[in-house]
Amino acid sequence: MNQSFAPVTTVPRDVRDMDGEDRPQQRAAIYARTSTTKQQLGYSIDEQVRQCVDRCRALDWTVAFVYRDEAMSGKDTDRPMFQEMLTRAKHGQIDVVVFWKIDRFSRSIMHAVQLEKEFQEWGVALHSVTEQIDTTTPSGQFNFRNLANTAEFEREMIRQRTKMGHAARAMEGKWPNASPPLGYEATPDGRLQIVESEASIVRRIFKRYVEIKSMADVAEELNEQESGHRSWTTASLSTTLRNQLYIGRYSVGDIERKEESYRIVSDDLFDEARSIRTRFSGDESHSRTRMRDKRKTNRVERILEQYRDWIN
C-alpha cells in the first residue's frame, strides 16, 4: 500500500547533482515493484525503497509518497499502486517519481518514453537511482530526449525489418501470421492449405448470397445451421465476400500475386456476389430486396421480447 512520509532529514540547500546543477526541493513519489514475491536481495521492494529514499535525502527532496506493487508484471500500467500514483501526479501532488531501475517502472525504454510524455504534461519529472535517467534538470531532459530518439530509431528499424520479413514471406506465398482466413490452415513451412470442411462453408456463403441477395438472411441461416459453433453477422459475411484470397489472389502488404492453389470459389461466382453487394452504390434505379417474412417475424418477436422485459 502507499504511505505518506514525513519530510526526511535534509542536507544543505547547496547540494548539487553530478552535473553541477542546483536541485530545488521537490515532492518525490517513490515507486517500487517486484515481479514475484521471492525477489533476490538487491531487487527486493524494501531494498528498492531504501535506495530511493537515500537518493531523495542526498538531493534534498521530500519523500511524499511510497508506492509498492508486489508480484506485479511490468507489461502494462494496470497496477494498483501505479494507477494511484498516476492519479496523484495528474492532480499536481507530485513533482518527481523516483524508482530504482527503469524496468521497475515500465516494461521497456519505449514504454518509459510514452509514460514520460504524460508525466511531462503534468509537470512531473522522472529519476532513476541506478541509471542516467533524470528529467529534473535541463541536461537530464536533453539526455532523455536522446534516449527517446534512440528508442524511436530502434523501433523504426524493427518495423522495417518486420516489413521486409513479411514481404519476403509474401513473395513465397506464405501467410504472415498464425490466423489465416476461414477455409485455410497454415502449414509448417508457412504456406496455406485448404481445409475442405471450412471451404464448403465459404462456398455455401457465396452461393446463398447470390441466391437470396441478403447478408442478414444468410447470416441467420448459418447461425441456425452451425448450432452455435460460430457466430455470423453481416460484418463477418461482408469480410468473407470481399476476400480475394478465395479466388487465389494473394495480397499481403505491398505484395500481390496469384496463388491458384488457394482458390476456393470461381471468378464468376465471386464477381456475381460482388455485383450484388455493390448494386446500390450510386444507382437509385435498383430497388432493395424485400425483407423475407421469416426475418421480419423474428425481428418483430425480438422487439416485443425487449419491450416485455422493459415493462416488467
From TrEMBL:
InterPro entries: DNA_bind_recomb_sf, DNA_bind_recombinase_dom, Resolv_N, Resolvase-like_N_sf, SSR_resolvase. Pfam families: Recombinase, Resolvase. One of its GO terms (molecular function) is DNA strand exchange activity. Residues 181-283 form the Recombinase domain. Residues 27-173 form the Resolvase/invertase-type recombinase catalytic domain. Residues 13-24 have a biased composition (Basic and acidic residues). Coiled coil: none annotated. It comes from the Archaea. Gene3D superfamilies: Putative Large Serine Recombinase, Chain B, Domain 2, Resolvase, N-terminal catalytic domain. SMART domains: Resolvase. Residues 1-24 are annotated as: Disordered. This is Invertase-recombinase protein. It comes from Halorhabdus tiamatea SARL4B.
